[in-house]
Amino acid sequence: MVKMPAEVKETLEKQKPIPIATASKAGMPNVVFVGLMKIIDDETIMLADNFFYKTAQNLAENPKISILCYNGDTKKSFQIKGNVTVTKEGPDFEAMRAWVHGINNKLPAKSCAVVKITEIYNAMWGPAAGKQVA
Length: 134
Ligand SMILES: Cc1cc2nc3c(=O)[nH]c(=O)nc-3n(C[C@H](O)[C@H](O)[C@H](O)COP(=O)(O)O)c2cc1C
What we know:
By secondary structure, the chain is an alpha+beta fold. It contains 3 helices and 7 strands. A 7-stranded antiparallel β-sheet has the order 2-1-5-6-7-4-3. It is globular and about 45 Å long. Bound molecules: flavin mononucleotide. The site of flavin mononucleotide (FMN) has 15 residues, from strand 2, strand 4 and helix 2.
């Protein structure tokens, strides 16, 4: 696991909606927007699955994710990669439901996707593009 530096957390918090990429076991990529993202700690992100379909199938067979963020004011962009654990019961799931239903209690809050961050890259154009930052 790696820790998100402050600039990564700040950039991710400003990204709305957040593009997340998953892939099937066969390698077919799939990108969707997610609005409900919470930073749990420096190495952990929670995503709320309200409407995941291909994303849920992909995570079940290939529990890896790539998350992208960009802030045009600070001109920073990062690509965060990690391993995902999906739960439909237990403390993480209950925490996700409380959070999501606190925003809108009509949302289905189907499952909780917890991302443990394994790699972070600089995704801003320029000489540092593609360089690993954590
Ligand atoms: C602005 C925006 C925000 C979204 N936020 C979420 C979200 O927080 N959780 C969720 O499950 N789906 C969210 N969606 C829906 C997903 O982007 C997507 O439609 C859904 O996962 C189905 O696509 P899939 O079959 O590729 O998974 C959002 C869509 C948009 C356009």
